[in-house]
């Protein structure tokens, strides 16, 4: 993960509507495409979701084995863009926000491709554009899924997974507002089962990341973040959001959580989880 995040933060910024944002999206798309090609895994693919701005979103999908569940995907998301809060053309490496989430789910995707993951229902990995502009990329995709009558089983957002604050011990912070309460309870269970760190609750107080786009479209969504939001990363949205402030062991904990989410719900058949997987 350190190698990937180091490369991802070499872009001067990843602003959604400039050439850096486009180039970084192309770089990320190539990493995903190469993983698929090198693994020779069947039933998995990746596509661009284009917008009317420069940076596209990315959707990678493991097809499900059960055709009756083809319209009920599980979604693991992160946002790929970055922003300097002073001016959009300034340096914004975005190591934590949200390079950490982007690379966390890229690592989960890599692990699943490597083992030839074949869930019962589709499992999708989304890397959204233009989150920093107001959740624009995820809104466009969620609205499209709603229009196409896609019955998403559940969505988890990975936005900032690499910083450990100074006020509280390392933990998963489960966001409790603008989320689905039942899915959030399930996410808490997965954190306790798959992770090695405590779980605490926190609140954003507003629609703070892409999970809110899915909630707005009527879908179940949940969000776990790196720590309590009263102890958040002071470097985000500045030129100092670089890998020197990233705890890669902490990122691994979020990779475990998203892996558990993908596997448990990917094998969920409506009344039970398939333990023969």
From TrEMBL:
GO terms for molecular function: aminopeptidase activity; metal ion binding; metalloexopeptidase activity. GO terms for biological process: proteolysis. InterPro entries: EF_Hand_1_Ca_BS, M28_fam, Peptidase_M28. Belongs to the peptidase M28 family. M28E subfamily. SUPFAM superfamilies: Zn-dependent exopeptidases. Keywords: Aminopeptidase, Hydrolase, Metal-binding, Protease, Signal, Zinc. It comes from the Eukaryota. This is Peptide hydrolase. PROSITE patterns: EF_HAND_1.
């Amino acid at each position: 993960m350190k190698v990937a995040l180091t490369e991802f933060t070499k872009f001067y910024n990843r602003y959604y509507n400039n050439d850096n944002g486009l180039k970084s999206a192309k770089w990320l798309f190539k990493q995903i495409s190469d993983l698929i090609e090198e693994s020779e895994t069947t039933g998995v693919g990746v596509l661009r979701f284009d917008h009317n701005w420069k940076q596209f979103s990315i959707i990678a999908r493991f097809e499900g084995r059960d055709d009756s569940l083809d319209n009920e995907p599980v979604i693991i998301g992160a946002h790929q863009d970055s922003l300097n809060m002073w001016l959009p053309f300034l340096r914004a490496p975005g190591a934590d926000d949200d390079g950490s989430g982007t690379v966390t789910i890229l690592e989960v995707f890599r692990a699943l491709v490597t083992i030839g993951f074949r869930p019962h229902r589709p499992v999708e990995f989304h890397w959204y554009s233009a989150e920093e502009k107001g959740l624009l990329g995820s809104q466009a995709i969620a609205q499209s899924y709603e229009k196409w009558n896609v019955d998403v089983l559940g969505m988890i957002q990975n936005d900032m997974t690499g910083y450990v604050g100074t006020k509280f011990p390392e933990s998963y912070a489960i966001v409790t507002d603008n989320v689905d309460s039942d899915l959030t309870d399930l996410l808490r269970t997965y954190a306790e089962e798959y992770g090695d760190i405590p779980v605490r609750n926190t609140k954003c107080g507003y629609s703070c990341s892409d999970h809110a786009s899915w909630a707005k479209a009527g879908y179940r969504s949940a969000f776990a973040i790196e720590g309590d939001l009263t102890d958040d990363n002071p470097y985000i949205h500045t030129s100092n959001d670089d890998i020197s402030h990233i705890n890669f062991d902490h990122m691994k904990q979020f990779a475990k959580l998203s892996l558990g989410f993908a596997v448990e719900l990917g094998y969920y058949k409506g009344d039970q989880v398939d333990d023969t997987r």
